[in-house]
Amino acid sequence: MNYTLHQLIIFLKIVETKSITKASEELHLTQPAVSIQLKKFQDQFDIPLTEVIGRQLYITDFGKEIAITAEKIVHQIQEINYKTLAYKGQLSGRLKISVVSTGKYVIPYFIANFLKENKAVELELDVTNKAKVIESLQNNEVDFALVSLLPENLEVDKIDLMENKLFLVGNNEFNFSTEKNDKSILQDIPIIYREKGSGTRQVMERFLEHNKLQLTKKMELTSNEAVKQALIAGLGCSIMPLIGIKNELNNGDLHVIPLNGLPLKSTWQIIWMKQKNLSPVAKAFTNYLTTHKNQIILEKFSWM
Q1: If one looks up domain 163-266 in CATH, what number appears?
Q2: SS3 for 247?
Q3: Strands, E assignment, the chain
Q4: Whole-model pTM?
């Protein structure tokens, strides 16, 4: 056996994505380079690691077993690197954070200087919908989650970061003259929803249910960016966080439609499982947030 760390990392990414193309994109390598390394790795085994049926790549049972061991090897090598840096007096390790999709407009500002001050810290950031964020937290796959609504039936500790405000938004085709429109206008215009599992959708549905509003025209899109593009194109209106539409408001592509009962308000929060044993890096991050969050909000989010 003469496999390399590089080959192990590439193989693990192929196992994760089940695609050489996707693995090459995520590793920032060319597709031929990934294919060559996979072949070199495969040549060291008499049993296939992968198989292609139709155009779909599958990981064999043997490949899955090798992936489990490979992951342990990569993890141990990372631990060696972290311990070496720690011995030199540097804070080192990996910080894993799962973020709800709209949170991608928030979290970079709260972590940028922390990473600049601690150059040996590696960041793993997963941006997805709320349901998957909570699943990752519950399965102990991440250190922290960024959410605007606390999960039910989970005991968590938290740090409140900043207020989250949701408004009714549309393009200039949806122009209402009164200062505060009645909620009933929502029944007469196309309304765009986020997908099920989204925190934004959850807040929006609570508002509609509380006000006993029955919508006749609605559509569902699977990302905040998709909703923004649909709004700009004039496909409808949506209740969405202000944090994600700064540029569109400044450009005049979108505007806030005044509506009685809005904005809806929640709080962006960094949360972690109450019984989790935080690593030195994770503890340092919580200390950093507690100390610097107010200054970050003042400098980066005063426009809100």
Answers
A1: 3.40.190.10
A2: helix
A3: 50-53, 56-59, 93-100, 121-128, 144-147, 156-170, 191-194, 218-221, 238-241, 255-257, 264-273
A4: 0.69
Residue in the block written with tokens 């969050």: 293
Q: Indicate if the alpha-carbon torsion angle 133, 191, 213, 242 is positive or negative.
A: positive
List, by residue range, all CATH 1.10.10.10 domains of the chain. Answer: 5-86
CA separation for the pair 39, 43 (Å, rounded): 6
Say how far apart CA 25 and CA 9 lie, in whole Å.
14
Residues whose CB falls within 8 Å of the CB of residue 43, separated by 6 or more in sequence, listed in order: none
**Which pLDDT tens digit goes with each residue over 71-89?**
888 878 877 776 666 656 6
CA distance 228 to 224: 6
CATH code for residues 5-86: 1.10.10.10
For residues 162-184, give the mean pLDDT: 86
Residue 280 has what pLDDT? 85
Intervals of CATH 3.40.190.10 along the chain: 91-162+267-300, 163-266
- CATH code of 91-162+267-300, in short, is 3.40.190.10
Structure tokens that stand for 194 in this block: 């986020």
Closest residue by Cα to residue 243 from 134, 163, 168: 163
- Distinct helix (H) and strand (E) counts, the chain: 10, 11
Tens of pLDDT, residues 207-251: 988 988 888 778 899 888 899 999 999 999 999 999 989 999 999
- What distance in Å separates the CA atoms of residue 244 and residue 242, rounded to the nearest whole number? 6
Q: How far apart are CA 293 and CA 283, in angstroms?
A: 15
CB 133 within 8 A of CB 163: no
What amino acid occupies position 105?
Y
Least confident interval from 14-18, 42-46, 216-220: 216-220
Strand partners, 162: 268
Tokens of 64: 């899955």
Per the structure block, which two tokens stand in for 128? 């997805």
Residue 287 has pLDDT above 70, yes or no: yes
pLDDT of 85 reads 61
